[in-house]
Design brief:
binds fe (iii) ion; disordered N terminus; six-stranded mixed sheet; Protocatechuate 3,4-Dioxygenase, subunit A; 6 helices; 14 strands; binds 3-methylcatechol; alpha/beta
């Protein structure tokens, strides 16, 4: 599938609408059939929680109408993927991976694009000649829970640039900037060169930003690398890795930080920038 790179702006509505389009194209809703009993159970319980909140806090018509207007604008801005991934996905991730013995993962978020260019390890992610940010050598091994190295495992990585922008969701960036799939070697070892991303603020000029401002919250996520690590016969691991010392590790707006996911890069002995080693352990299917 090729992406039409239309002109667009760095607005919440533009990145939101692209995330919405991406989700529609993702195939995640194909053949999706939630049984009637389950829909009824979940819808009733969610509504019951809403009724409880309304009664407990005596919600007024003004507040009800503010909510209605806001929900309408979430859709108009294409921000349902952003809203759900920031405020809901982390609990779905928690319950769906609770039995794993391998690596902790975390949420995918709204800016994944499948089909990134593939490179044999060691690799350098596609980036601009003058890409900002501290160079980072990220390396490690992909193994099974029993320690078997997973030859040829795929380490798919995507992240924001030094200004906090994701390619294909912000204007003016090369299509696959800072996105790539690195193939581990026969020993499951991978190494890739990229840059350390900057802390990331979710778009503030759309509906999600409006909620954040109206509630007096902040819009920050700690700087992060997104990853999908996979090998045939093993469960796909979707993860993010963060950086020690980041000021938003303890108050991520998306509640997606786990202590096991924090990197501590050190200055490279040879070459410029930092390096860090992190191994991935996958559960069998
Ligand atoms: C991101 O980059 C992200 O990772 C999440 C979860 C939500 C919004 C933007
Ligand atoms: Fe992200």
């Amino acid at each position: 599938m090729t992406t039409e790179l239309k002109d667009f702006d760095a607005t919440a509505a533009d990145s939101g609408n692209r995330a919405t389009e991406r989700f529609r194209d993702s195939g995640k809703t194909v053949a999706l059939q939630v049984p009637k009993e389950r829909v009824s159970l979940l819808a009733n319980e969610v509504l019951a929680a809403v009724y409880d909140t309304i009664r407990k806090h005596k919600v007024s018509y003004d507040e009800f109408n503010a909510l209605k207007a806001w929900l309408i604008s979430v859709g108009e801005n294409g921000e349902w993927p952003l809203f759900l991934d920031v405020w809901v996905e982390h609990v779905v991730e928690e319950v769906s991976t609770e039995h794993r013995e391998g690596n902790k993962g975390t949420i995918e978020g709204p800016y994944y694009v499948p089909g990134s260019p593939q490179f044999d390890s060691p690799a350098t992610l596609p980036m601009r000649k003058d890409e900002g940010g501290t160079p980072l050598l990220f390396q490690g091994q992909v193994r099974a829970v029993d320690g078997t190295p997973l030859a040829g495992a795929h380490v798919e990585i995507w992240h924001a640039d030094d200004d906090g922008f994701y390619s294909q969701f912000a204007p003016g960036l090369p299509e696959w900037n800072l996105r790539g799939t690195v193939l581990a070697d026969a020993n499951g070892i991978f190494a890739l060169n990229t840059i350390q991303p900057a802390p990331y603020q979710i778009p503030t000029d759309g509906a999600c930003g409006k909620l954040i401002a109206a509630a007096g919250w902040h819009a920050w996520r700690p700087a992060h690398l997104h990853l999908k690590v996979s090998a045939p016969g093993y469960q796909l691991l979707t993860a993010q890795l963060y950086f020690e010392g980041d000021q938003h590790l303890s108050d991520d707006i998306a509640s997606a930080v786990k202590p096991e996911l924090v990197l501590n890069p050190t200055a490279r002995l040879e070459g410029v920038g930092n390096e860090v080693t992190y191994d991935f352990v996958l559960d069998a299917e």
